[in-house]
Design a protein that fits this description.
Blueprint (H helix, E strand, L loop, with lengths): L13 E5 L4 H12 L3 E6 L2 H14 L4 E6 L5 H14 L5 E4 L17 H16 L1 H6 L3 E6 L13 H4 L7 H22 L5 E7 L14 H10 L6 H4 L1 H8 L10 E3 L2 E2 L10 H15 L3
Parallel strand pairs: 1-2, 1-4, 2-3, 4-5, 5-6, 6-7
Antiparallel strand pairs: 7-8
Helix pairs in contact: 1-2, 1-10, 3-4, 4-7, 4-11, 7-11
InterPro entries: NAD(P)-bd_dom_sf (IPR036291), SDR_fam (IPR002347)
Organism: Hymenobacter fastidiosus
Keywords: Oxidoreductase
Length: 292
């Protein structure tokens, strides 16, 4: 028997979710719409975005679904996105930072950032900070960021030159670094928002069978992905913790935590719990984005 979903749980709430056109993001958006939220889907590709919107409305005929297009790998686009959100919505009740990439060969954006660092972390840092006025206007709001257990292999490199160095680059290490950054950012954000009505939490969705690894990924990532595939969960199942953190009443006042299987979980890296490291990352991120 399917679990009961209260279609009024999020009635009147507005939720912005990045990376919504497929995988975990799509199923998170669909189920939050099923709970009554007005969904704002942030997607990179117009055709995939429209397909996701249509599928959500087909599954939830009464759903209110808006689409905003943005390539989050460019910070100028993130600024434009935040400005557009500010023009359209007086408040945001939930921000779900879901978009992410698993990089292949080293790619440096036209703004000078390594692709996974800017997409998985800097865009999250920038968008969240730029949308704080809308989140604060909601009175009680939530920031949910999709991280990963891969954080345990991550390190925070202060030098952009080192991150961008082809001789030192590892796509797997770059991904792990960005996931550690997600957790440290969440911890520092929760600390800074302690006296507000905004909470911040992050999560590991599980090892999810998505398109994160692609033909451009390194042979090591492809090999590891292939070996792990029998143990992977579906994107629909992988979305459950994001849905829980965005909607469950029991975590309305919980902040600064890392979740797995919809429960608080132990962080695998001591660095992920280091307040000094979190503060250092914030300073690096502020310098590289010009925000915060």
């Amino acid at each position: 028997m399917a679990a009961f979903v209260d279609p009024k749980l999020l009635h009147g709430k507005t939720i912005l979710l990045t990376g919504a056109s497929g995988g975990i993001g799509y199923f998170t958006a669909r189920e939050l719409a099923r709970r009554g939220a007005r969904m704002v889907l942030v997607c990179r590709d117009a055709e995939r975005a429209e397909k996701a919107r249509a599928n959500i409305v087909h599954a939830v005929p009464e759903a209110l679904v808006d689409v905003l297009l943005c390539d989050l790998s460019l910070l100028a686009n993130v600024r434009e996105l935040a400005a557009e959100v500010g023009r359209r919505y007086e408040k945001l009740d939930v921000l779900v930072n879901n978009a992410g990439v698993m990089p292949g060969p080293l790619r440096i954006t036209t703004e000078g950032h390594e692709l996974s660092w800017v997409t998985n972390h800097l865009s999250v840092f920038a968008l969240t900070n730029l949308l704080l006025p809308q989140l604060d206007a909601a009175g009680k709001a939530r920031v949910v960021t999709v991280a990963s257990d891969g954080h345990w292999l991550g390190e925070i490199e202060a030098s952009q030159a080192v991150r961008n160095d082809p001789d030192k680059y590892s796509s797997f290490a770059a991904y792990c670094d960005s996931k550690l950054a997600n957790i440290l950012f969440t911890n520092e954000l929760a600390h800074r928002l302690d006296l507000t009505g905004i909470t911040a939490n992050c999560l590991h969705p599980g090892i999810v069978d998505t398109g994160l690894v692609n033909p451009n990924s390194s042979w090591l990532l492809k090999t590891m992905w292939g070996l792990g595939k029998p143990f992977m969960v579906s994107p629909e199942r992988g979305a459950q913790t994001s849905i829980f953190l965005a909607s469950a009443p029991e975590v309305a006042h919980v902040s600064g935590r890392y979740f797995k299987h919809s429960k608080p979980a132990r962080l695998l890296s001591g660095n992920a719990q280091n307040r000094t490291e979190a503060s250092r990352l914030w300073q690096i991120s502020a310098e590289e984005t010009g925000i915060g």
